[in-house]
Design brief:
By secondary structure, the protein is mainly alpha-helical. The chain has helices at 3-13, 18-25, 34-46, 48-80, 102-105, 126-137, 139-146, 150-158; strands at residues 108-113, 119-123. The chain contains eight helices and two strands; from the N terminus they run αααααββααα.
């Protein structure tokens, strides 16, 4: 495959339109009529080698995206489930940052070491991490579906029970 078609395939895989990908890949295309660009871009995109390369690049992008999403979810879970007792050793001494295991270190947002050697840790907000985890898991959506709308409930309770407005009601015979 030519370098121009490789560039074209990369642009297509990144989400660029066929015509724009052609213009970016072939400097001559900038001077072509729009119809000529569209036709050439369509031919290039239909090329078996280009289609295979685009599919390969899109697969790589999808794998990277999934990996990043999995990493983000893993970190949210680590912060949400973080146990601060991990910063203390068996003798009750605060551990230095390099002494912390990975699970404990993930809960640490910042730390300071004073002039006297004292350590001060600041932790990530567990509530914020739990909030994110609940949203990702759809727990709020399930909860919101359980809530009722008072107006909708009222209208449903009235359905079939309301006859409507009568403009000139007939007097009851009992009223005579």
């Amino acid at each position: 495959m030519s370098p121009q078609r490789e560039t074209f395939a990369r642009h297509l895989a990144s989400g660029m339109s066929q015509s724009e990908a052609l213009r970016q890949s072939n400097s001559k295309a900038a001077h072509w009529k729009a119809s000529a660009v569209h036709q050439a871009a369509s031919r290039w995109a239909a090329d078996v080698q280009v289609r295979a390369r685009v599919a390969e690049l899109q697969q790589k992008l999808a794998e990277q995206t999934v990996l990043r999403a999995a990493d983000a979810l893993r970190e949210i879970a680590r912060i949400a489930l973080f146990d601060p007792r991990g910063i203390v050793d068996d003798k009750g001494r605060l551990k230095l940052l390099h002494e912390l295991d990975d699970a404990t270190a993930s809960g640490v947002a910042a730390f300071e070491i004073s002039d006297t050697g004292g350590i001060k840790y600041k932790f990530h907000d567990k509530n914020a991490a739990l909030e994110k985890a609940c949203r990702i898991l759809g727990l709020y959506e399930r909860d919101n579906n359980q809530k009722t709308d008072p107006l909708t409930a009222l209208l449903k309770s009235l359905s079939g029970n309301v006859l409507g407005v009568v403009a000139n009601p007939e007097p009851d015979e009992a009223d005579d």
